[in-house]
Amino acid sequence: MNISESFELGGGETVTFVGAGGKTSTMFRLASEFSFFGLSIVTTTTKIFEWEGKKADFLLISEDIEDLENLISALSEGKIVTIASGKSKDEKLIGVEPEFADEINAQISPDILVIEGDGASKKSFKAPADYEPVIPASSDLIVPIVGIDVVGETLNSENVHRPKKVCEISHFEIGDTVTPEMIGQVVGHEKGGRKNVPSDASLIPLLNKVDDESKEIAEEVAKKILSYTRQIDKVALGCIIRENPIIKIIER
């Protein structure tokens, strides 16, 4: 299955990705699914590397809605546009304010608006800092991502982004082994995967990097997540680099 079918996206939605373990790749994969027939806009409320932003057909550095309107009017259908507010000295694109993302949603109405809502320093698992995630109010779907390859690793800064925050919202300590139970507690927690989710938005976690060997573990993680909150009704298992990226949906 592709992402849009699995998440029942019909077009016109705003999807915000949070967490760790393949957010940027998943964003552009989803954007590409809609770009076959329409306009996909990709942005971030944090920072992404400039080379990542250039995966799109066009990169616009502006927070002026008229600049975006002018660019889109000159485009043919079937394009992906990345939009950022500026560039930093470390070759990263600076994200837009969440209110600007809401403005894009209201005035441009792209076929899909895809947003990265936090950073993860290329790790596969994280818990959010006090100031994140930054999720636009107009988001229809929030997708917390975890890379299943983190299971069995040690809970420390080498393997996990903000491991101390993981400890704060779970029953685990630095140095413990990352388990399905740990991931379930963090993703299902109101200060973890459910943090800052708009009240009317859907919430579907994605367990990424799943293969034949890790599928059973991923299913266990999914069931743990579902056991910790009634706010989540299903969890997707997938591997974004595959031709059909979503392998299975685990439902309550």
TrEMBL record:
<dbReference type="Pfam" id="PF19842">
    <property type="entry name" value="YqeC"/>
</dbReference>
<protein>
    <recommendedName>
        <fullName>Selenium-dependent hydroxylase accessory protein YqeC</fullName>
    </recommendedName>
</protein>
<dbReference type="InterPro" id="IPR017587">
    <property type="entry name" value="YqeC"/>
</dbReference>
